[in-house]
Write a structure and sequence with these properties.
CATH class: Alpha Beta
Shape: globular
Distance between the termini: 31 Å
Bound molecules: flavin-adenine dinucleotide
Oligomer: single chain
Largest sheet: 8 strands, parallel
Length: 310
């Protein structure tokens, strides 16, 4: 792993740095390459362009780690607004939403989990009314059990709700077995947070090997695997495993982030695969951007230039 990864991931959670950096406009070079804009209109416009290109979308209203009930409520309202706007734009056949439970109340006092569940339910209901779905993003390992618990509750009423598992966690292969049941939508990613060695693989090779083991479980299972990676080897292995398990395109999907490998997103879609692009939007882009820089520290100088010239 890059030497800069851990420090950048720790900075991702620094409130002080966040305050300074978020004064940079979303239009600044590096931010704009990962985040299409701040408003629902910006997000729906980006979704429309991607759908017109044959891609699917999942919209993420940026924000995380709130301990404030009012902030959680504003996030829910932003999602309800986005779902209505997607409906008006006729995009809900191709676009869903991704939700971080820490943005809708998971950390708000002792009843935070209950609040997050109720808020997630409201978003799931609105999504269903618009004919689309919700996926629960996965955050750091301290929230995994809580998030999977809330997912279980939500799936009783909204079985279409997507889960996310992270191959860097040692527990994830077992979680894949648990979640590989019929109708279960599971996004598999490598994982984007700073995690201790007690719970996570530290070497890139170990994370990749775990990713392949998890893919084998998901592709041979009864669920709907969502292969979230830009790594050409993981994409190729997913294709091989899908074919080996007799899966047709459409019985699984690829997912990539907005602005990363867009030509590969289009190439896969043109070859008949389902490809979903994760589109983050909003003013709270700091944590998201820092995690992307941690994955690609080469972009750091580009980021610093944007910051200095703001
Ligand atoms: P890597 O080995 O990191 O990258 C492979 C190649 O992709 C690189 O060589 C490079 O060419 C390209 N690339 C990767 N990152 C960048 C970048 N930032 N800028 C430019 N090029 C890049 N993580 C979570 O912890 N929870 C989630 O809920 C979650 N949801 C996700 C949803 C989607 C749709 C995707 C694609 C990722 C999500 N992630 C999530 C992030 C994920 O865990 C990884 O941190 C991220 O995808 C990088 O891993 P990778 O598999 O692309 O492989």
């Amino acid at each position: 792993m890059s030497l800069l990864r851990q420090p950048l991931l720790l900075l991702a959670r620094s409130g002080g740095v966040k305050k300074v950096v978020e004064t940079m406009p979303v239009s600044a070079g590096i931010v704009r390459s990962y985040v299409p804009g701040e408003t629902t209109t910006d997000a729906v416009r980006a979704a429309g362009e991607l759908v017109a290109d044959g891609l699917h979308v999942t919209l993420d209203h940026l924000g995380e780690d709130t301990s404030d009930r009012g902030d959680a409520e504003r996030t829910v309202e932003a999602y309800l607004d986005a779902l209505t706007a997607l409906g008006h734009a006729g995009l809900t056949h191709g676009a869903e939403v991704s939700v971080k439970l820490s943005a809708v109340g998971q950390y708000v006092g002792e009843s935070g989990e209950q609040l997050a569940l109720e808020n997630a339910r409201r978003i799931c209901r609105a999504a269903r009314n618009q004919g689309t779905t919700v996926t629960l993003d996965m955050e750091d390992h301290t929230t995994t059990d809580s998030t999977l618990g809330i997912l279980r509750e939500l799936r009783q009423d909204f079985p279409e709700t997507g889960a996310v598992l992270q191959s860097y966690l040692r527990r994830t292969e077992e979680d894949c077995h648990q979640l590989a049941y019929e109708g279960s939508r599971v996004r598999l990613c490598k994982g984007a947070y700073a995690e201790p060695a007690s719970v996570a693989f530290e070497e890139r090779l170990e994370v990749d090997k775990s990713y392949v083991r998890c893919l084998k479980v998901l592709m041979s299972g009864q669920g709907y695997p969502m292969v979230a990676s830009h790594d050409p080897r993981m994409v190729a292995i997913a294709g091989t495993l899908a074919a080996r398990n007799g899966r047709e395109p459409g019985s699984y999907e690829y997912q990539m982030l907005y602005g990363i490998r867009p030509e590969e997103q289009r190439r896969l879609a043109e070859s008949g695969e389902t490809v979903r692009v994760y589109v983050p939007y909003g003013s709270e882009w700091y944590g998201y951007l820092m995690r992307r820089l941690a994955e690609r520290p080469q972009n750091l100088s580009f980021f610093l230039t944007s910051l200095i010239s703001k």
